[in-house]
């Protein structure tokens, strides 16, 4: 049994505050952004991570305190670190330009208190100029309520502005969970079927149509695209909640090569980038559902998943005809994605798997 710390971040609107307070956030953001860009520029020009000396020698007039500048510096260092790493790997890098930024603040900058009757909480932010606290009323919401009960709030917070200019507070909640090892089941994440399980269950045949009819025809980034994407996420979550019920330990495949289209099942499909998004999202959600249910999951390397016969071990792409698997050596046949899931489970190799029935109950896809 493994004990794991899990985290969830939630957004709370700061828009209940009056205009003066929101203006304070806007001005803080401008100053913060300017300082952040300055520290990035310094580090980038000198090709080393800036130190606190840069805070002391900050050349511009600012109402930000040293403490705020210090927080900005930490964020600049974070950004530069990843830039320098890329460079070290031989990639071409250009100087990062700060456009949108989340203000990352530690516990010295704020108080988060229980509110009175009219508001659930008060978020009080330190005003570097007047040495006072600027108070923002915060309302709780149904989805967030459970996190205040049984979860621990992380001390680092973020302030962020959405594209529409609205301000949000991002709180992170932590919890330690015990992940129990249960009976393993292989899961093949796919496109024509969202999930195929090694026990023969199949979930989410409708996802393909949602992607092709509702999402791909829309302009990426448009309002209608986003709405369709939200719909897809809701559907995926509904399907995953049915499948990942906490009674078994999912065994999943690590598809590192998916992005480059190495895996045939995915590479032939219409929009590779979008498939990758779907795959990553599903994988992430499965892990999160396991955490909530308290079961362990396992990841195995990807290897001939859709071409190996689970009965005799023969590997050949000729074993597969679209959605149907039919071994040319031993004759074993089954839904190709279920075969994939069985192979994933076998790779986990905890116990010998008895082959699944050669004539499965669902055969409607054989002649697609
Ligand atoms: Zn075979």
Tell me what the structure shows.
The chain is α+β, with helices and mostly antiparallel strands and 368 residues long. The chain has two domains: 1-178, no CATH class; 184-348. Helix content is 35%, strand content 23%. Strands 1, 2, 6, 7 and 8 form a five-stranded antiparallel β-sheet that branches. A hairpin with a 4-residue loop joins β10 (195-197) and β11. α5 runs antiparallel to α6 (223-243). The model is unreliable at 350-361 and 363-368 (pLDDT under 50). Zinc ion (ZN) binds next to loops.
Key terms for this structure?
368 residues; alpha+beta; 2 domains; five-stranded antiparallel beta sheet; five-stranded mixed beta sheet; 9 helices; 35% helix; disordered C terminus; binds zinc ion
Question: In a nutshell, what does this entry contain?
Answer:
This protein has helices at residues 19-46, 52-56, 66-88, 142-145, 207-215, 223-243, 264-267, 272-293, 336-348, and strands spanning 2-13, 103-105, 110-114, 121-127, 132-138, 152-153, 157-161, 167-179, 184-189, 195-197, 202-203, 249-254, 298-301, 320-321, 324-326, 333-335. The chain is of the alpha+beta class and 368 residues long.
* Beta content: 15-25%
Task: Note the total helix count.
Answer: 9
- Provide the helix percentage: 25-40%
- Gross geometry: elongated
Poorly predicted parts: 350-361, 363-368
| Overall number of structural domains | 2
Integer average pLDDT: 87
What structural class should be given to the helix and strand makeup?
A: alpha+beta
| Biggest beta-sheet profile | 5 strands, antiparallel
What is the string of helix and strand elements?
EHHHEEEEHEEEEEEHHEHHEEEEH
Give me the Rg, rounded: 26 Å
- Secondary structure tally: strands: 16
């Amino acid at each position: 049994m493994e004990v794991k710390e899990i985290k969830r971040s939630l957004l709370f609107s700061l828009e209940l505050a009056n205009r003066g307070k929101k203006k304070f956030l806007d001005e803080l953001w401008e100053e913060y952004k300017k300082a952040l860009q300055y520290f990035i520029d310094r580090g980038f020009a000198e090709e080393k991570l800036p130190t606190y000396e840069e805070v002391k020698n900050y050349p511009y007039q600012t109402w930000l305190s040293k403490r705020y500048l210090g927080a900005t510096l930490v964020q600049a260092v974070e950004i530069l670190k990843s830039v320098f790493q890329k460079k070290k790997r031989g990639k071409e890098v250009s100087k990062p330009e700060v456009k949108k930024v989340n203000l990352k603040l530690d516990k010295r900058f704020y108080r988060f208190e229980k509110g009175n009757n009219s508001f659930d909480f008060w978020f009080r932010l330190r005003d570097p100029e007047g040495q006072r606290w600027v108070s923002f009323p915060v309302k709780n919401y149904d989805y967030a309520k459970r996190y205040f009960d049984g979860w621990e709030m992380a001390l680092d917070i973020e302030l962020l502005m959405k594209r529409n200019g609205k301000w949000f507070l991002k709180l992170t909640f932590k919890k330690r969970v015990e992940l129990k090892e249960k009976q393993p089941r292989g899961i093949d994440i796919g496109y024509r079927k969202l999930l195929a399980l090694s026990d023969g269950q199949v979930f989410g045949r409708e996802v393909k149509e949602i992607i092709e009819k509702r999402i791909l025809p829309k302009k990426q980034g448009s309002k209608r695209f986003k709405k369709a994407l939200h719909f897809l996420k809701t559907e995926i979550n509904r399907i995953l909640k049915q499948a990942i019920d906490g009674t078994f330990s999912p065994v999943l495949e690590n598809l590192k090569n998916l992005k480059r289209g190495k895996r045939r099942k995915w590479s032939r499909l219409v929009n590779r980038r979008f498939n990758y998004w779907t795959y990553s999202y599903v994988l992430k959600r499965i892990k999160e559902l396991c955490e909530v249910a308290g079961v362990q999951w396992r990841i195995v390397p990807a290897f001939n998943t859709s071409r190996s016969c689970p009965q005799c071990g023969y590997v050949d792409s000729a074993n597969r005809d679209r959605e149907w698997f039919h071994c040319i050596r031993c004759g074993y046949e089954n839904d190709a994605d279920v075969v994939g899931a069985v192979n994933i489970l076998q790779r986990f190799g905890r116990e010998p798997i008895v082959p699944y029935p050669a004539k499965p109950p669902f055969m409607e896809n054989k002649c697609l």
